[in-house]
Amino acid sequence: MAALEEHFGQKLLIRSQQGVSMTDAGHAVYRHSQIILRQMEQAQADASAAGNSLAGRVSVGLVPFSSAATLSVELLAETRRRHPGILLHLTESVGQTYSQMIMNGRLEMALIHGTGPIKGVRFDPILREDFYLVAHRDFGIEDDDKPVPLAALDSMPLLLPPAYNFVRRAVDTAFTRTRNNMKVVAEVEIVRTLARAVAAGLGATIMPKAIADRIATETGEPLICRIISPRIEETLSLCVSDQNPLSEPALAVRDILVELTERLKI
Fold first, then answer.
1. What are the tens digits of pLDDT across the range 88-126?
2. Distance of alpha carbon 195 from alpha carbon 188, whole angstroms
3. In this predicted structure, what is the pLDDT of residue 132?
4. Could you give the number of structural domains in the chain?
5. How far does CA 209 lie from the centroid of its chain?
6. Is the CB of residue 68 less than 8 Å from the CB of residue 205?
7. What is the DSSP secondary-structure string of 4-28?
8. What is the DSSP letter of 85?
9. What contacts 196, CB < 8 A, 6 or more positions away?
10. Among 110, 87, 115, which Cα is nearest to 99's?
11. Where residue 4 sits, what CATH number does that domain have?
C-alpha cells in the first residue's frame, strides 16, 4: 500500500481507531483497479477463445420488483443457447446500488428504475411500467378491466417494499399527490413472501404489472389484479458506464437483454 501511495502521490487509506476507510483518491484508484482486472479477465478469455465463439464473464444487475426481475431465467437460457462460452453473472439485490457498481466496474450493465442523470452512468430508457393493485377478493374490489381509483384504496392495509425502494417511492408519491391515506401494515422485500401474504388476505399490494401478474398467477388464490388510476408508472432503463466501452461478450448480452425487454411491451 505504501508503494501505491508513493506511486500516486496521494494518501489512499485513512487508518483510525474506528478502522480503515478509503480517501477520495483511494476510491478513484479502486474504481480503476476493478476495471483493469475485468479487462485482464476479458483479455484472457479473448485469447483463449481466439477464432472461436464469444467467451468471457458478463455481470448484469436486474432490479427487484420490476419487469427486469422476471427476465433472469430467459436471459440465462438465451445467452447459453447463443453464446455458450459466456459466463453470465446475474444479481438481483435490494441492498446494493447498481449505478455505483457499474461505475466501480463490478457490473457491466443493469436494468433499473429511473432515467438519471447519474455521473459516470448512461441511462437508455427502454420500458415504461404501469403499476397494478393485487388484492384478495375479500377486500371487496370488483374483478373488472376498469382502473381502480386510488381513493378506493384509502386506509386499505398494504404490503409494500421499504421506503428506500423505487417502487415504494412511486406509490408514496401517488398517494401524497391525491391526498389519500396510505396504510402500510408490513414492509416486504421478498416477492414470494409478498405473494403468499396477499393470497392469505393479510393485505393488498401495488406492483409493476409483471410482478403483479406473477403474484396473481403463482398463488392459486382468487386474486384481483387491476391497474391504478391516476396511473402510477415508472421508467425502466438499461444502464452502462459512460466511460468504459462494453466488451464483445457484454455487447452480445446487452442485445439479448434489450430483445427480451422489448417483448414485454407486446
1. 999 987 656 888 888 888 899 999 888 878 888 999 999
2. 10
3. 94
4. 2
5. 15
6. no
7. HHHHHTS--EEEETTEEEE-HHHHH
8. T
9. 219
10. 110
11. 1.10.10.10
Cell of 229: 388510476
Q: Is the pTM of this model over 0.70?
A: yes
Give residue 160's domain range: 129-234
Task: Write the CB contacts of 216 (distance below 8 Å, at least 6 apart in sequence).
Answer: 134, 223, 225
**Amino acid (one-letter) located at 36:** I
Query: In this structure, what CATH number is given to the domain that contains residue 165?
Result: 3.40.190.290
Phi, psi angles (nearest 5°) of residue 126:
-130, -20
Residue 139, all three cell numbers: 377486500
Look at residue 100 and tell me if it is in a domain: no
Residue 139 lies in a domain: yes
Q: How far apart are CA 100 and CA 31, in angstroms?
A: 10
The answer to the question of residue 122 being in a domain is no
Exposed/middle/buried for residue 221 (C-beta within 10 Å: 0-12, 13-18, 19+): middle
Q: Which cell numbers in the block locate residue 203?
A: 393485505
SS3 129: strand
pLDDT reported for residue 94: 64
Q: Please, is 245 exposed, middle or buried when counting C-beta atoms within 10 Å of its C-beta (0-12, 13-18, 19+)? A: exposed
Please report whether residue 70 resides in a domain: no
Q: Is the peptide bond before 117 cis (omega within 30 degrees of 0)?
A: yes
Cell for 110? 443493469
